[in-house]
Amino acid sequence: IFPANSGNKEITWMMLEAGAETDVVNSVGRTAAQMAAFVGQHDCVTVINNFFPRERLDYYTKPQGLDKEPKLPVKLAGPLHKIITTTNMHPVKIVLLVKENPLLAEVEALQKCYKVLDLICEKCMKQKDMNEVLAMKMHYISCIFQKCITFFKEREDKLDGFIKSLLKGREKDGFPVYQEKLIRESIRKFPYCEATLLQQLVRSIAPVEI
Description:
This is ANKY2 protein. InterPro entries: Ankyrin-MYND_dom_contain_2, Ankyrin_rpt-contain_sf. The chain has helices spanning 2-6, 9-17, 32-38, 42-49, 54-58, 74-84, 91-99, 107-126, 132-154, 158-167, 177-188, 196-205. It has 210 residues and is mainly alpha-helical. Helix 2 runs parallel beside helix 4 (42-49), helix 3 (32-38) runs antiparallel to helix 4 (42-49) and helix 8 packs antiparallel against helix 9 (132-154). The protein folds into 2 domains: 1-50, no CATH class; 54-206, no CATH class. Helices cover 61% and strands 0% of the residues.
């Protein structure tokens, strides 16, 4: 809790990587993220809420049950983990992270990655301590990966075309319509309709016209 309260993002991250638990509460029943938010250290809250232990991803790099092959090749674990733990969720940032890594920037790799993200999303929703925020994040990144695959298959300019589509604004006011539609579509496709977070997002977005 102390690193989070101090506002030191680097030390907060180091402690998380060393195995610090995020759901432990103090004497007044608050977690580190709740205490950091209480004292206004929102950068540390973001670090805690976006943390995903590497070993949880590495689980998918080993064959499970009757599987002969792992669901995620070992070489993709590092690049995928970098995207999972990023605190910048702008779709262009995520696409750039894909484009910058040759291991990720191909159809087969993205297919394996988005399927693993969907499994993590499901596990977040079905575990005892449900994590709707992390589930939604995994689903959102999965949707962007699937859209990347579409551009790889259908467009010669591939991810450059995707990035241009995301950044292009409409003539009258420069508003990025394609980007807005992509984000709304990812929310609409979230498979767990009972999620409180989903219902809050729908109530906030539905009345607002593009």
